Write the structure tokens for this entry.
Amino acid sequence: MVNIDELPEIICLEDYGGDYHSYIDAVYEVFARDFMHHHPAFGSHVLKLKYHPEFQQRAYTFYHMTHHGEKEDEREPDLRRCERMPWARPTIEKVVEFDLKFWEQERNGKSRVCIWMEVDNGDNYFVILDVRKTFVLIWTAFYADYPHQAKKKQKEYEAWLASIGGVVMTPDELVADIQSRLPYNKARVACKQTTP
């Protein structure tokens, strides 16, 4: 479990006088700092971003990390996700240092890595990475609003761990294992390496 004092402070709408436009600009500044002007990596894999289709002139990945909803074009802002944007980078980069749980999950035919950060204040924060044949994308992040969501993730993690014989992998081993099973696809994704 991660001590809340080891994490950056969350960003609250109240800090911006309830002005959502100023607030979302500030959240995007954190996103840009941590994922566009920095080189975050999961193990040795420097992450890429999906930029298109842009949403309100911002990267598609930002939209996924700050909005929720089943229908892609009807997603709504999620303040809990926005508040914890400063947590996304340390969740990824300190996965070993913080001794976080991470595992493979399959969603809609895609192979993804789920990283779970349990915080000592009771928060449960998740970051999802999309593993492709030759690179890894940051895909989304979310906050578990209810205890049953964390319990569901715990069961998913335990089932995956049992399926691989209980052997805990490193980030590089997990990505390599997933990539070894992916077919080569010449289709390109609209993404860039996270360089300034």
